[in-house]
Amino acid sequence: MTAADSNTHAGRTGRTATPQDPAAADAPVPSGAPGPDDTLDLELPAELRALFAEDVTADDRAGRPAALDDLLDGVADWGPVDTPAGTFHLVPARPERDLPVVSHWMNDPAVAAFWQLSGAPAVAERHLRAQLDGDGRSVPCIGVLDGVPMSYWEIYRADLDPLARYYPARPHDTGLHLLIGRVSDRARGLGGVLLRAVADHVLEHRPGCARVVAEPDLRNTPSVAAFLAAGFRFSAEVEMPGKRAALLIRDRALRHVL
User: Fold this and answer.
1) How far is CA 185 from the centre of its chain?
2) For residues 201-226, average pLDDT
3) Sign of CA dihedral 27, 30, 35, 39
4) How far apart are the first and last CA of the chain?
5) Nearest-CA neighbor of 113 among 217, 212, 250, 16?
6) 199 near 31, Cβ under 8 Å?
7) DSSP string spanning 198-224?
8) Residues 6+ apart with CB under 8 A from 172
9) CA-CA-CA-CA dihedral for 112, 145, 82, 154, to nearest 10
């Protein structure tokens, strides 16, 4: 892959979207937006780190790095998944390879309104490197569909995120942020298709995770519609800094029902 198309995340700073035609539910699909109350500002205490280390079994260590080196069970090794839209692969982002396309996407006016990462490439680079140089609670990825980079994702530990301050988080809750990068891939129903596939991919590869969560702005009806189409259920309205969010959950126990 020579470039990365990325769009994901929305609402962490309370970005709001102007309601659009529900048919465009997969035009940028934001579920959290970078800002002062971002995923990366929640420090993981030393005592909590020790608990995570103790919770890792010998089998876990044989199959993946120590828990604190990979809080998301090896996203890089999850591999591709078949979807109704084609073969989809989450590939962890690398700034040296993916920054040009990520920055390009972030400067799309439809995306910039949610992400607030427009401007020089250095703006997007700082956002990527903050995650890549962190403790592993958030992994930025390029979504590759049939070999073509077309979306940007962030897979993150919702229970270790500032989001956990605003809802009854459970251990290993995993959050998704998605942004469809290529304009030609928007308004085609891909948002719901890919969100369902990736949520189920998370549940398959993270056995300790019982729920995948998202928190789009309630006023962003296309985003909410895409998550609902993907089998997420509406759980609650959550008052967060700058926005009132829809807490949406895809439960492991209901994945074959919804």
Assistant:
1) 18
2) 91
3) negative
4) 33
5) 16
6) no
7) HHHHHHHH-TT--EEEE--BTT-HHHH
8) 157, 159, 206, 208, 209, 210
9) -30
| CA 251-194-33 angle, 5° bins | 80
Given pLDDT bands bounded at 50, 70 and 90, which one contains residue 41? very low
Q: How much of the chain, in percent, has pLDDT values that exceed 90?
A: 57
Q: How far is CA 118 from CA 37, 114, 121, in A?
A: 18, 10, 8
Q: How confident is the model at residue 12 (pLDDT cuts 50, 70, 90)?
A: very low
C-alpha 114/C-alpha 93 separation (Å) is: 20
What's phi and psi for 66, nearest 5 deg?
-55, 150
The answer to whether the Cα torsion of 181, 143, 91, 167 is positive or negative is positive
Q: What SS3 state is found at 239?
A: strand
Q: Worst-scoring range by mean pLDDT, 45-49, 93-97, 179-183, 246-250?
A: 45-49
User: Tokens in use for 225?
Assistant: 């519609």
Please give the Cα distance from 229 to 195 (Å, whole number): 9
> Is-contact 6 102, C-beta < 8 A?
yes
Distance between CA 127 and CA 14 in Å, rounded? 17
Residue labelled with tokens 């490197």: 129
CB 136 within 8 A of CB 69: yes
What pTM did the predictor assign? 0.76
**Res 156: pLDDT:** 96
Q: State how beta strands 211-214 and 174-180 pair.
A: parallel
